[in-house]
């Protein structure tokens, strides 16, 4: 069992700093979510981990072996991304052949099964497929390669609701059959909130959260009630957002509450869901930067 | 089974609660097999580790048991056990809340008892 260590990765493109000292650990056989707003640096990070681009500084290690330019390590990882790496004139079947050649193995029975379920014609040329079907072909590959670390960058891009549903089911089925690490980067947070065990949030090139979903949710609170009572109760706490409707205010708190304070009768406390928490955490930061 | 993903109750607790309710209402009888982690996980897009955590709550409560290589099964006496637990928590879960709400509404104890009697009569007429 190998563990993937991402150590102090920074990346500049010219003057623009895309990633700032990102350190994280990916354990074997876990499903992770990688969340971030547009331009947060998610794709850059995934490209660096899988050695498609070099970082300005930092390294990626699979156990004690440096991943960069190491074919043995790289064959343990697969990145499905928006980039279409396959020649348009190639037939889908031929693309699967090529993947098999570079990874040594390919789960053909599963590929046929998935092609049937998603209604992909293996004899069709890749270039003639729609955006959604480009994603589907790449997803099939991602589930059929023998790699231990599968990175999915926007896996459901262009997929309709039915196909997304099918994909999540097949992902979990493949995971149960052969547990491996999946890292799913997506903007459709609600859809993956219960599917992933642990999330990384990046914002503005920095790691904002690195926690199990359950723990994150447990530390997030929505405190609702008459404005003065809510403000008094949340004073000094880490308030990440606020909403008001008339006299009723909701303050969103991320962190621990003060147990010594008495909760007023007029105030209710609930937990946030992952998507709301993400929105408030990443909104707050941008607003602070602007002021 | 139906999960409320907007609810703030952790998903693993919902998994446990749903299965328990199904056992209690006879959806799964004693010695019946309960759905596997994989089935629940696939159908509701829940991480298998979360589903397993929920199942383990029921194992700890002695309601289901793992039969190696076969899956999870409802234990003998599970239904009685749930009944017993729910009776014990009936007072704190329902009676206390009922009295509190009645007090907020300015209902006297007599009035509340009358209402309870009415509830029973109503129950009789609808059956």
Automatic annotation (TrEMBL), chain A:
Domain ABC transporter: residue ranges: 4-229
Lineage top rank: taxon: Bacteria
InterPro entries: AAA+_ATPase, ABC_transporter-like_ATP-bd, P-loop_NTPase
Alphabetical keyword list: ATP-binding, Nucleotide-binding
MF terms (GO), sorted A to Z: ATP binding; ATP hydrolysis activity
Name this polypeptide is given: ABC transporter, ATP-binding protein
Signal peptide: none
Transmembrane segments: none
From TrEMBL, chain B:
Pfam families registered for this protein in UniProt: GntR (PF00392)
Gene3D superfamilies: Winged helix-like DNA-binding domain superfamily/Winged helix DNA-binding domain (1.10.10.10)
Domain HTH gntR-type span(s) in chain numbering: 9-77
GO MF entries: DNA binding; DNA-binding transcription factor activity
InterPro entries assigned to the protein according to its UniProt record, in alphabetical order: Tscrpt_reg_HTH_GntR, WH-like_DNA-bd_sf, WH_DNA-bd_sf
Keyword field: DNA-binding, Transcription, Transcription regulation
PANTHER family referenced in this protein's UniProt entry, alphabetically: GNTR-FAMILY TRANSCRIPTIONAL REGULATOR, HTH-TYPE TRANSCRIPTIONAL REPRESSOR YTRA
Record-given protein name: Transcription regulator
Higher taxonomy: Bacteria, Bacillati, Bacillota, Bacilli, Lactobacillales
């Amino acid at each position: 069992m190998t563990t993937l260590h991402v150590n102090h990765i920074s990346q500049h493109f010219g003057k623009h700093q895309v990633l700032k000292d990102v350190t994280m650990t990916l354990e074997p056989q876990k499903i992770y979510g990688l969340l971030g707003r547009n331009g947060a640096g998610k794709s850059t990070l995934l490209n660096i981990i899988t050695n498609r681009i070099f970082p300005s500084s930092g390294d990626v290690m699979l156990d004690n072996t440096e991943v960069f330019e190491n074919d043995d390590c790289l064959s343990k990882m697969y990145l499905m991304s928006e980039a279409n790496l396959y020649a348009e004139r190639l037939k889908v079947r031929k693309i699967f052949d090529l993947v098999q050649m570079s990874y040594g193995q390919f789960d053909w029975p599963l590929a046929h099964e998935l092609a049937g379920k998603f209604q992909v014609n293996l004899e069709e040329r890749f270039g003639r497929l729609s955006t959604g079907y480009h994603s589907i072909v790449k997803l099939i590959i991602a589930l059929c390669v023998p790699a231990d670390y599968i990175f999915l960058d926007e896996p459901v891009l262009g997929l309709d609701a039915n196909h997304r549903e099918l994909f999540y089911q097949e992902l979990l089925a493949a995971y149960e059959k052969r547990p491996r690490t999946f890292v799913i980067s997506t903007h459709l947070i609600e859809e993956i909130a219960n599917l992933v065990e642990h999330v990384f949030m990046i914002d503005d090139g920095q790691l904002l959260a690195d926690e199990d979903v359950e723990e994150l949710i447990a530390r997030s609170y929505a405190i609702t009630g008459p404005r003065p009572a809510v403000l008094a109760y949340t004073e000094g706490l880490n308030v990440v957002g606020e909403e008001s409707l008339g006299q009723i205010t909701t303050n969103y708190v991320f962190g621990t509450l003060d147990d010594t304070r008495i909760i007023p009768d007029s105030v209710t406390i609930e937990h946030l869901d992952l998507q709301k928490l993400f929105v408030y955490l990443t909104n707050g930061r941008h607003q602070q930067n602007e002021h | 089974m139906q999960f409320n993903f907007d609810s703030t109750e952790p998903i693993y607790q919902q998994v446990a609660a749903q299965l328990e309710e199904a056992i209690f209402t006879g959806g799964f009888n004693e010695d019946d097999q309960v759905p596997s982690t994989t089935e629940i996980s696939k159908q509701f897009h829940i991480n298998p580790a979360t589903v397993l955590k929920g199942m383990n709550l029921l194992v700890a409560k002695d309601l289901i048991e793992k039969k190696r290589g076969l899956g999870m099964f409802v234990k003998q006496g599970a239904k009685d056990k749930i009944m017993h637990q729910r009776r014990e928590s009936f007072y704190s879960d329902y009676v206390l809340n009922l009295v509190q709400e009645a007090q907020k509404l300015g209902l006297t104890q007599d009035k509340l008892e009358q209402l309870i009697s009415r509830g029973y009569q109503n129950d009789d007429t609808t059956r």
